[in-house]
Amino acid sequence: MALLQVENLSVQFGGLKALNDVSLQVDTGDFVGLIGPNGAGKTTLFNAITGVVHASAGTIVFDGKSIKGMRPDKIALCGISRTFQNIRLFPKMKVYENVEIGINRIAQYNMLEAVLNTPRKRRLDRETHEHALRYLEQVGILQYKDSYAGELPYGIQRRLEIARAIATQPKILFLDEPAAGMNNDETRDLINFLRALHKQTGLAIILIEHHLEVVMELCRDITVLNLGAMLAHGTPEEIQNDSAVIKAYIGERRNKFHA
Ligand SMILES: Nc1ncnc2c1ncn2[C@@H]1O[C@H](COP(=O)(O)OP(=O)(O)OP(=O)(O)O)[C@@H](O)[C@H]1O
Ligand SMILES: [Mg+2]
User: Fold this and answer.
1) Does the CB atom of residue 44 touch ligand 1 within 6 A?
2) Phi first, then psi: what are they for 252, rounded to 5°?
3) Where does the record place the ABC transporter domain (predicted)?
4) What are the Cα distances from residue 91, in Å, to 95, 98, 149, 150?
5) Vertex 199: Cα angle to 45 and 95 (nearest 5)
6) Confidence at residue 255, expressed as pLDDT on a 0 to 100 scale
7) Is-contact 124 107, C-beta < 8 A?
8) pLDDT tens by residue, 148-166
9) Are the C-beta atoms of 197 and 137 separated by less than 8 Å?
10) What is the average pLDDT score of the chain?
11) What percentage of the chain exceeds 90 in pLDDT?
């Protein structure tokens, strides 16, 4: 059974069909890509699966259970974690605190224990802190732990978002344009980092990315959306040679595939 099975999903914003009959399957440990031009519906698909927007039709089954219509926090607890196209960190909080917040979502003690600052609460806080540091180390930014998130270089903020997302120990990670705004060297670093992360954790990952080389290198299975609909699905080779994809999406940018 697939880890995530999305079937015939549609999302409507007023008169706009942002998603129309879209299906997607992700197995445990898969690394799949989701590409398509601006406005294709990629982020909307993430939003619909994570419960942020309402799907008007279709089914979403995760880990054997229907999650359609569930609240976003409940869906997160099922083991789905994500980063955002527009980075969403707490800029005035320290780097380690940003990760602790992710962990605390799945914790732990009640209000009374917090007010009384019981030994159990102090122990849990210490464990959360150590846990956060481990994830910062895993994404290679431990040296920034005491900086304020808003003061970090952009690429490091993107890593911090990934640390926060994986600190909840999800079964699947959704990455929405992690290479946005990165130069070639930073993009290359990100590819190596994501490959290593995937290998180490065995996490299933869905990656949205406009930097096509990232998707082509990392993903064996790619879905292409265009104007809310599925345009193609296949291996990087199949996608690169698909005439509908070339026509609708790549056009004059075809050389990007062969860079
Ligand atoms: N909350 C919303 N309310 C109304 N329209 C929306 C909403 N979210 C997205 N849309 C519209 O739905 C369509 C799909 O948007 P979406 O953000 O999913 O595209 P995308 O493929 O992620 O594009 P990009 O590559 O630019 O991030 C767009 O036309 C967008 O304007
Ligand atoms: Mg988007």
Assistant:
1) yes
2) -70, -10
3) 4-252
4) 9, 9, 5, 4
5) 70
6) 46
7) yes
8) 999 999 889 999 999 999 9
9) no
10) 91
11) 79
The atom number, within ligand 1, closest to the CA of 37 reads: 25
Over range 30-58, report the average pLDDT. 96
Q: Ligand 1: distance of its center to the CA of 227 in Å? A: 10
* Structural domain span for residue 196: 4-258
Q: Which two tokens stand for residue 175?
A: 């990455």
Residue owning the nearest CA to atom 27 of ligand 1: 38
For residues 175 and 205, is the Cβ–Cβ distance under 8 A?
Answer: yes
Number of structural domains in the chain: 1
Rounded to whole angstroms, how far apart are CA atoms 259 and 256?
5
Query: Which numbered ligand comes closest to the C-alpha of 228?
Result: 1
Q: Is residue 166 packed enough to be buried (19+ CB in 10 Å), middle (13-18) or exposed (0-12)?
A: buried
Residue pair 33/218 in contact by the 8 Å Cβ criterion:
yes
- CATH code: domain of residue 19: 3.40.50.300
CA separation for the pair 163, 142 (Å, rounded): 10
Ligand 1 closest atom vs CA 40: 21
